[in-house]
Amino acid sequence: MANRDEIECWLTDMDGVLVHENSALPGAAQLIDEWRDTGTPFLVLTNNSIFTPRDLAARLRASGLDVPEEAIWTSALATASFCKSQMPGGSAFVIGEAGITTALHEAGFILTETNPDYVVVGETRNYSFEAITKAIRLIVGGARFIVTNPDATGPSADGPLPATGAIAALITRATGREPYVVGKPNPMMFRSAMNKIGAHSENTGMIGDRMDTDIVAGIEAGLHTVLVLTGISDLAEIDKYPFRPDEVLDGVFQLVSSDPVETDAF
Q: Per residue in 157-204, pLDDT tens?
């Protein structure tokens, strides 16, 4: 496993690592600026498949982070990339928002309700009983079942919301078919991200805030893993898992070159 000083490319999660509730976390802007100034290849990753990279770049700008849209890799883009690699010029019935429909269109897919190659379920705030019923019938009829990400719930100001994983579970229960999940913790998402920037696992680092998605997928993809404590996981959470990140940091500010703070490494 590479030491941090051998890392030439970076993948980083977004929420809980760079931003929290639309505010940049300490050091995030400096780290992004440092990567851009030094020409370090990097991608900001998110399992959220609702938004396009352009939408997310605008959201990050509003948070004080200057991340170009081409440096953002979503589960929607990873899903479209996977589908294209499996069946170029294929067709899909989609439950989701602009993030996944745009990505599939740009990958050369036709969106249809008639005999699609795939049923693709992504994040949306408008799950429709009619659309779910259609998805179930198409899968029973032979369409392959793909899900952008496994998250069962998502956050909101009023509490948790049912997310992609919950709707996928409903469809699985009705059809007896398990979906192929492209987003984290599937290391496929990291591999497709590395392909996009021409990176290799032996010199790429992954920064995340969740042991159960970011870190396990990073380990399985052969990356140098960095857990930051500004998001979901805390020190007690680490002990619940049989694997360990290579480094545990208080936040991304400790990755900025000028920061002298010592870090804990496993």
A: 788 889 999 999 999 999 999 999 999 999 999 999 999 999 999 999
> ω into residue 185 within 30 of 0, thus cis?
yes
Q: Measuring CA to CA, how many Å separate 131 from each of 28, 68, 124, 176, 202? A: 39, 34, 12, 18, 43
Task: Count the neighbouring beta carbons within 10 Å of the beta carbon of residue 21.
Answer: 9
Contacts of 13 (CB under 8 A, 6+ apart): 44, 45, 46, 207, 208, 209, 210, 214, 231
| Cα 102 → chain centroid | 16
Alpha-carbon gap, residue 168 to 148, rounded angstroms: 10
pTM exceeds 0.70 for this model: yes
Q: Tens digits of per-residue pLDDT, 117-159?
A: 999 999 998 999 999 999 999 999 999 999 999 999 887 778 8
Rounded to 5 degrees, φ, ψ at 6 are -95, -5
| Cα 124 from Cα 78, distance rounded (Å) | 17
pLDDT digits (tens, 9 = 90+) for 37-94: 999 999 999 999 999 999 999 999 999 999 999 999 999 999 999 999 999 999 999 9
Catalytic residues: 13, 15
